[in-house]
Write a structure and sequence with these properties.
Keywords: Cell projection, Cilium biogenesis/degradation, Coiled coil, Cytoplasm, Cytoskeleton, Repeat, WD repeat. This protein has 789 residues and is α+β, with helices and mostly antiparallel strands. The chain is 37% helix and 23% strand.
């Protein structure tokens, strides 16, 4: 890049140099790096681009709304500014120096690339526009499309000619005119292709390829006689537009391609529009060129600096560009690339001479399988390395997130143990879960049912936890393509991040809520005072967040980033994230004047700066005093055992859960009990009154914040209820006191303890009898369920 620059109408133009004879076809690489106020550098990512072959120009837009124009004929480049980040670009055909820009404000802007002036603005979309194209026939229409709608504009008066609206499960994946402009073709997310005649906008054909699932992209040859279809399944279909029949069905696994993100036909000179070279961007972010006539890969582009996120071919095929995942743009000369493919073919076919070193046979290393890549990543990337990546970039890459989570959680991949749980079928507790939740996708519903059933077969606790479906649902959405990883990931989270959640089940986890309250009290006492004034307890600002795994208050991208950090840290980090959300949103929360307003606040996705939110969670983790730090009560991370079965989940009161399960089928259980021995009517009533009252007392004590109320609760509770150790743990969390006060109180209570020895002895006998009775009921109930199944 030269230092010389020229000025035209207030726009600075700079010189560029391109390679005249590139060895690998790469003529130019673009990257946008700026210097920050602290002296460091920051790279801004390019997100989209478009070619104008008639004028030898290229427009590229970055993530900050800057648009760069490259003129290959004059070897100049310059920058024009947009008011908002761009989502799509397209040069206006037959209009010199006019660029059509779609921005994140849902606007369509006609901009002069020489001075940046805006000549026209169209509005009408309700979502960011992802596609802009012009028809090549006499109608001269403009097509703009977002995932939820497509609009045809008449270019004579710039009014809406036709609007296509979609519904949630059938959003627009891709939409375009055929090369001649006679038809409008749209690919939807439900794997359906719809074709309309352009003149009348009446549907003429619907294509539903049964073998092709998760369709991602379609492409047309220049003569419009053939259409290619591809998606995340390893299959490529060539469809004849004149015969409405399938021409070829190509298995892409032969070429090491397990899925496709994007396809483009590459026009070539003298091919008559019947393009033979198809560019295929695989799910592995590698660009390969397939000759669909001889069914052979002729060239492969795999960038060392990073994977390819998308690629764009110019209308005549003279150039194509690759937008890398790191944000750079590589621009290639197509003819040079095709010449390289031809020379490689000649070298492969040429026989070896008598001098071995003169024969350079080009051999391609086999593409590693997904399992091999995952195994290499698990070996090379330990938790410390992954955390360094997370601290540097703030999140893990989407492509490798599942593999990284698997490495962080050290999932054992116990296929036999998981198969044994799946073979038990759908658990009765979740047989009709679709009646409780509205889930449009049948695949997601099936995955959710399978996961909940496996968890319930693994531990009976999870058959009676009401919030469990809402807690696991976001994990299902992210990991449903790998059911084994999904189950082991959720099970590991329940073992570690969800410690102490179920110690009072089905009542709230008092210890956990008290820990969150102590963190808020330590770092933001005025906020806690505001909660107390409105009678807001931690069940509102902590429990609701935990039970939905943050999915109710965060967007999808924010949720993924947060769980990247939760899974990369100690198990108690999740509690600091809960407290961080309240403290970060302090100003918004204090504006809520009623209990209902605060409660609604924690059921909505409120705007939040995710970087500040995450940073605050780390600050709380590091600055919380050791005496109230949750890590004192959490066990260290424990992975699932590798072998033929998973370890038991025991962190819950078995008697309470058993009783709740028996109530679902009370009549049958009582009948089976009477066959063995006469029923003890007093036992059941005593269990209900004693156990529930004790837990209610603890819960009420947690929600009150006055010292007098805590003392009254302590007197009324006496020595009944949970064990002394658990009482000490809860009391130390809810109202920690110094040692002298504890000693003084213990001396004062000695006389009372002596008076209660006889009562406690009778209570212990009764409790032992109760435990045996409930265990027998649970055993009979299990037998009855087994016989029914």
């Amino acid at each position: 890049m030269e230092n010389r620059n020229s000025r035209s109408d207030g726009i600075n133009k700079f010189d560029i140099k391109i390679k005249s004879k590139p060895k690998d076809g790469l003529v130019l690489q673009l990257h946008h790096t700026i210097r920050g106020s602290n002296g460091g550098t920051r790279r801004i990512r390019f997100i989209t681009g478009t070619f104008n072959d008639a004028q030898e120009k290229l427009a590229c837009a970055d993530n900050n709304g800057n648009i760069f124009i490259l003129d290959f004929s004059q070897l100049k480049f310059w920058k024009i500014l947009s008011k908002a980040s761009c989502t799509a670009l397209q040069f206006f055909p037959n209009h010199l120096d006019t660029l059509v820009v779609a921005n994140k404000k849902y606007e369509i802007i006609f901009m002069d690339i020489e001075n940046g002036n805006i000549s026209l603005k169209l509005t009408g979309h309700s979502a960011p526009v992802k596609h802009i194209s012009f028809s090549n026939n006499k109608m001269k229409n403009l097509l703009t499309a977002s995932p939820v709608e497509a609009i045809l504009w008449e270019l004579t008066n710039y009014t809406k000619y036709f609007t296509l609206n979609t519904y949630t499960s059938a959003n627009i994946q891709q939409i375009m005119f055929t090369p001649a402009g006679d038809y409008l073709v749209s690919c939807f997310q439900n794997d359906t292709i719809q074709i309309w005649r352009h003149e009348t906008m009446k549907s003429v054909k619907q294509i539903i390829p049964s073998e092709l699932k998760h369709m991602k992209s379609i492409a047309f040859t220049m003569n419009g006689r053939a259409m290619a279809m591809a998606g995340l399944s390893p299959l490529l279909i060539l469809f004849g537009m004149d015969t409405w029949k399938v021409l070829k069905s190509i298995d892409l696994t032969k070429y090491g391609i397990n899925g496709v993100q994007q396809i483009y036909f590459v026009p070539q000179v003298f091919d008559g529009g019947a393009n033979k070279i198809l560019g295929i961007l695989s799910s592995d972010c590698i660009l390969q060129f397939l000759n669909v006539e001889i069914l052979k890969i002729v060239y492969t582009i795999q960038c060392q600096s990073g994977g390819i996120r998308s690629f764009i071919v110019s209308p005549t095929g003279k150039y194509f560009l690759c937008i890398l995942q790191m944000g750079e743009v590589n621009i290639y000369n197509t003819s040079c690339v095709m010449d390289l493919s031809q020379s490689n073919k000649e070298l492969e076919d040429k026989p070896c001479t008598s001098v071995p070193h003169k024969c350079h046979k080009i051999t391609k290393s086999p593409t590693p399988t997904k399992e091999e890549v995952e195994d290499r990543m698990r070996i090379c990337m330990d938790t410390a390395r992954l955390r360094r990546i997370l601290m540097q970039y703030g999140e893990y890459p989407d492509k490798f997130r599942a593999t990284i989570w698997r490495s962080l959680l050290r999932t054992p991949r116990n296929k036999l143990a998981y198969s044994a749980l799946v073979d038990k079928g759908i658990h009765p507790a979740y047989k009709d879960i679709e009646k409780q939740f509205t889930i449009h996708s049948s695949i997601t519903l099936k995955s959710l049912k399978r996961l909940l059933s496996c968890l319930s077969h693994w531990c009976p606790l999870f058959a009676v936890i009401k919030f469990l479906p809402g807690f696991v649902f976001p994990f299902v959405k992210v990991l449903q393509k790998d059911p084994l990883l999904l189950f082991e990931c959720v099970a590991t989270v329940l073992l570690n991040q969800c410690q102490l959640w179920f110690e009072y089940a089905p009542l709230p986890p008092i210890s956990i809520l008290a820990m969150v309250e102590n963190i808020v009290a330590e770092h933001d006492q005025p906020l806690l005072d505001h909660y107390c004034e409105l009678e807001i307890t931690s069940q509102t600002y902590a429990l609701k967040i935990l039970e939905t795994a943050f999915s109710e208050i965060l967007t999808c991208s924010e949720w993924l980033i947060l769980w990247d950090h939760i899974l990369s840290n100690e198990p108690s980090f999740i509690l600091f994230a809960v407290a961080s959300y309240s403290i970060t949103q302090r100003n918004a929360i204090k504006k809520q004047k009623t209990h209902d307003q605060v409660e609604n606040f924690f059921h909505n996705q409120n705007p939040i700066d995710k970087k500040t939110f995450i940073k605050k969670a780390y600050n709380l983790l590091n600055e919380t005093p050791e005496e109230i730090h949750p890590r004192n009560f959490f066990n260290k991370f424990c992975a699932l055992d590798k072998g033929l079965c998973y370890q038991q989940f025991t962190g819950y009161p078995k008697a309470t859960i058993c009783l709740k399960m028996t109530r679902k089928d009370k009549k049958k259980c009582i009948k089976s009990d009477r066959l063995h021995e006469p029923p003890d009517t007093d036992t059941g009533s005593e269990f209900d009154s004693e156990e529930v009252v004790n837990y209610t007392e603890i819960d009420r004590g947690h929600t009150e914040h006055k010292h007098k109320a805590r003392q009254d609760r302590k007197k009324s509770k006496g020595e009944c209820g949970p064990s002394n150790i658990k009482d000490d743990l809860i009391n130390s969390i809810i109202h920690p006191v110094n040692e002298e006060a504890n000693i003084k109180k213990s001396h004062e209570s000695r006389s009372q303890k002596k008076e209660n020895i006889l009562v406690r002895a009778e209570s212990e006998v009764k409790n032992n009898k109760l435990e045996k009775e409930v265990e027998r009921i649970f055993f009979n109930c299990n037998n009855s369920e087994t016989s029914r199944s």
